[in-house]
Predict the 3D structure of the following.
Amino acid sequence: MKALVFNGSPRMDHGNTALILTPFVEGMRECGAEVEVFYTSRLHINPCLGDFNCWFKSPGACHQQDDIQLLHPKLRGTDVWVFATPLYVWGVSGPMKNLMDRLVPLVEPAIRLRHGHCTHPLREDTPPAKVVLVSNCGFWEMDNFHPLLAQFEMFCRTVGFEFAGALLRPHGPLLGAMLEMGAAVHDVLDAAREAGRQLVQHGAISGDMLKTVSRELLPKSTYLEMANKEFEHELAMGTAAR
C-alpha cells in the first residue's frame, strides 16, 4: 500500500494535529505501507485560477508551474490520500484548500450520475483511492467538525473515492498539555497508531479506534476554566511585553 500524507498545519510536526497524525503514520509504516509526508507550508501551490485550461486546453494537466506538478503523478499512483489539518473557521487551513482546489485536473469535465447524484468521473490515469481525514480543534464539542466532515464526504462521493474514516481530536490543545503532565491519555495515541495499522491490514478503521481518538479528556466546564486561564495568562504576558 502507498499513502500520501498532507500535513496542513503551519506548525508541521510540532502542532496539535501532528499529535494524532504522527502515530497514525507510524502505524501504517509498521504494517509495511510506503508513506510519503508533505507539509503544505513548505509547498508552493498557487490558488486555482478557475480558467479550466486543465479540462479543455491541456486536459489533465495544470499550466501553472508550481509544486502541483510534482504531486499530480504521485496522487495518480497512490492508494491512500491523508489530509491532516487544524480546524480553521470550520474548514481546512488555507494552504490545504489551495491543494484541494488544484486537484481538478484529475477529473473529467463531463458530468455523470453516480447513484442518482451529479459527479465528475476520474480520468483513466487516476485510479480510485481511499481518503482519511485527520483534524483537531480548540473547541470542546465534536459537532464543530461537521462542516469539515461534510466537505470530505462530498469530495469522496463526487469523485468515487472511499472515505475510510476521520481521526478527530476536539479540545485538541489539551492533549499535548496532558501528555506533558503525565496524564493517562496515551490510549488516544495508541488508538491513532492502531488506526493506521487497521487501514493497511484491513482497508478500514474500526469505529472503536475513532471513538478513542476523539474521546472526552476532561469535562467541558473544567476545559473552559483551564483554557480561559491560559488565555488570560498569554494576554497578560503580551501586555507586559508591550
Notes: The two ends are 52 Å apart (CA to CA). DSSP finds nine helices and seven strands in the chain. The first strand starts at residue 2 and ends at 7. The longest helix spans residues 220-241.
